[in-house]
Amino acid sequence: MENILKIAVDAMGGDGSPKKVIEGIIHHEKVSKNIFYNIFGDEEIINKYLLKKLNVNNYKIINTKEIVEDSDTPLAAAKRGKNTSMWMAIDSVKNNYSDVVVSAGNTGALFVIAKLNLKMINNIDKPALSGLWPSKKGMSVVLDLGANIECNDKNLIDFAIMGSSLFKSLYPSEKPKVALLNIGSEELKGNEIIKETYQKLNQIVNEDFEFKGFIEGNHLMDGEVNVIVADGFTGNIALKTAEGTANFITSELKQAMKNSLLGKLGSIISINSLKKFKKKLDPRLYNGAILLGLDSPVVKSHGGTDFIGFSNSLNVCEKIIRGNLIKKIKQNIS
């Protein structure tokens, strides 16, 4: 029997919270076993949405009426003090009452409060925000998605190692294949930092991942590599571009199917293919970015997602704990 996994949940962060958070927990509990939810937030409001749909043995509400606002700067959020639902959820992990923390709240605030409370893993200088992207051959880990605008070669090498550890904890049967996101695939392309990183990664003998060189933006979804490394500036632009393109394609396709009789007939004929296509691009299925580099796992759910998306971020929490993510990073980084 698996050990009970304890997830600290900031119930008050993000759009539509705590309703979507509680509904996400209820949805997650239906498909997961041996999970205990430490839920931080306004007990009176949370109980309105629980409606006895959650097994009373599987959760505890830690009451607080103080929250981090989406409009807060990271500094203002930290100054709100230790009684906000976000701070208390992170503190729960710090004090080993929970194994992992998840929040759909203010991203900058989550980073700052997490760094104030949790230690960095030895030999790692900067944390990185990593996410999951779909590809032709499954899933890829992409990092950094915006935590660090400027990075040196050591930071990028650390990201490669942490990203590989994350991929291995999520997909134990597959070998991580690492590539650096660049403006070309040739060895001489790119700035000095990325070229230096290329040379150093080429010299690393590591059984835990295979370095595949550079990858260009138009090949991110090919699936030839499954760990893609960039500085936070480049990674965030790539992320927003991919999200925007996916939204554009699905909305234009939907519009085309409505605009003519031929389009409507075509949509009926190919309904199963269209459903598969829509599911492939559904961002809720990839919800749950992980802040890597800290001594405890921190998961960021998209603030605008719904309960399905939040449930998937809980699934990410479950996988990275069951897959011994932190232990893998510590072993590989040393």
Q: Beta-strand percentage?
A: 15-25%
Assign the CATH architecture of the largest domain: 3-Layer(aba) Sandwich
CATH superfamily of the largest domain: Isopropylmalate Dehydrogenase
What's the domain count? 2
Order of helices and strands: EHEHEHHEHEEHEHEEHHHEEHH
The termini sit apart by: 31 Å
**CATH fold group of the largest domain:** Isopropylmalate Dehydrogenase
Radius of gyration: 21 Å
Helix tally equals: 12
CATH class of the largest domain: Alpha Beta
Provide an overview of this structure.
The protein is of the alpha/beta class. The chain contains twelve helices and eleven strands. Strands 3-2-1-4-11-10-5-6-9-7-8 form an eleven-stranded mixed sheet, sandwiched between helices. The model has no long low-confidence stretch (mean pLDDT 88).
Summarize the structure.
With 334 residues, this protein is α/β, with parallel strands linked by helices. 45% of the residues lie in helices and 17% in strands.
Descriptive tags:
334 residues, single chain, alpha/beta, Isopropylmalate Dehydrogenase, globular, 45% helix, 2 domains
Q: What's the structural blueprint in terms of helices and strands?
A:
Blueprint: E1 5-10, H1 19-31, E2 35-41, H2 43-50, E3 59-63, H3 74-79, H4 85-94, E4 100-103, H5 107-117, E5 128-135, E6 138-143, H6 153-170, E7 177-181, H7 192-203, E8 210-215, E9 227-229, H8 232-259, H9 261-269, H10 271-280, E10 289-292, E11 298-300, H11 307-322, H12 325-333
Parallel strand pairs: 1-2, 1-4, 2-3, 4-11, 6-9, 7-8, 7-9
Antiparallel strand pairs: 5-6, 5-10, 10-11
Helix pairs in contact: 1-11, 4-5, 6-7, 6-12, 8-9
